[in-house]
Design brief:
Elements: E1 2-6, E2 9-13, E3 21-24, H1 48-62, E4 69-73, E5 80-83, E6 96-97, E7 100-103, E8 109-114, E9 118-123, E10 130-135, H2 137-141, H3 144-156, E11 164-167, E12 177-178, H4 181-190, E13 198-201, E14 204-207, H5 209-219, E15 224-227, H6 242-245, E16 252-257
Parallel strand pairs: 4-6, 4-8, 5-7, 11-15
Antiparallel strand pairs: 1-2, 2-3, 3-16, 7-10, 8-16, 9-10, 9-11, 12-14, 13-14
Helix pairs in contact: 3-5
Length: 262
Amino acid sequence: MIRRNAGGLVYERSPSITAPHGFTTRCGGVSAGPLASLNIGQGRGDTPANVAENYARLGKAIGFDPQMLALTRQVHGDVVRCISEADKLGLDAPRKDCDGLITDRVGTALVVFTADCIPVLLHDPDTGAVGAAHCGWRGTALGLAAKTVQAMAAAYGCEPGHLRCAIGPGIGLCCFETDADVPAAMRQALGAAAEPYMTKCGQKWHVDLKGLNAHWLRTAGVQHIDLSDSCTACEPETFWSHRRMGASRGSQGAVIVCGGAG
């Protein structure tokens, strides 16, 4: 992954995805206090003016029109919604109750929000279609990343082996300490294939959510996966982490723009 600085606005991008996209950090916006500074979450207590300006700056850096945003209202499930010409877009449009979005509507910018959970972006260079998924541990156990690939194949005829995928910043194996319920959910979903991604430390477990989501993508036929090594809990000056900060924080996330077949 490549970390870029556009006039103080810092984001990560994949070297393999040619569609405009980025995984945001907390750096480069106008929000203040615990939300400083590039908060892109609308439900964090920020002012609408601050959030709008943050998206304006992000759009300028990455390359999208804030009036063409499709936003999620995340529920930690496995629902993937398709954004079509009929959907209203922009910051004032209704958010979709889901954790995955896909589209082939040119100019649409798909957004998912994170603060430790794993963001996954997908691009099909053949059709121009794009996808975005928010994979918390529940979404990971449900195979949301793979279901997003399958939804793109069903809706747009995308060939999974041609997709370019990036797994962005999220909590790492180093910091994601859990009780036994999380490993149990992964074993129920993946069986013995889950074991390499989980380590027991005393009475607790450490779980590699990025590795598990990469595994799901490979099972769905994806061959090209770029993986961020940034841990949101390890870099509090760069990322918000729900584990470290609780509810008093902003939201970072991931955005990808449908640009049509290239």
